[in-house]
Write a structure and sequence with these properties.
Largest sheet: none
Order of helices and strands: HHH
Strand content: under 5%
Radius of gyration: 33 Å
Helix content: 40-55%
Structural class: mainly alpha
Number of strands: 0
Distance between the termini: 104 Å
Shape: elongated
Oligomer: single chain
Length: about 130
């Protein structure tokens, strides 16, 4: 037999509105996320590879969806460098590449006008050395 509510027992109308709804949503969300985690552990890498191969547009959407919204990507970090700093980087790259470009049997091809050694040459009509 059900106990009759006493004056001190909380009544349904005394509860905070939405408290049970929030708890139910959290429980449902936690359960859903755990199911997703388990499924990913079992099949994730294979499915991702399949999506990448068969649906690259969906793969890109997936990648973008997990990146932070405020991600700032500066692809061209040369904008912040002075011309001299860029030249230094180019010369450093030339030094690294030179052994690969000077293999026996290949034409030298590294001489610049004026007898200077180097792979790159200044752009004509640009920069401080350009005729005015």
């Amino acid at each position: 037999m059900a106990k009759a509510p006493s004056a001190g027992d909380p009544q349904p109308h005394d509860r905070a509105p939405g408290k049970q709804t929030r708890r139910a949503k959290k429980t449902l969300a936690d359960g859903f996320l755990e199911a997703i985690r388990a499924d990913f552990r079992a099949h994730g890498a294979g499915v991702i590879a399949e999506v990448r191969a068969e649906k690259p547009d969906q793969y890109l959407k997936l990648v973008l969806s997990v990146l932070p919204k405020d991600l700032s990507v500066n692809i061209n970090n040369l904008d912040a460098l002075s011309d001299d700093e860029i030249r230094q980087r180019i010369r450093g790259l030339e030094a690294v590449l030179r052994p690969f470009l000077e293999k026996p049997g290949l034409e030298k091809g590294l001489a610049q006008p004026g007898g200077k050694e180097g792979i790159s040459q200044p752009a004509g009509g640009a920069g401080p050395e350009a005729p005015h």
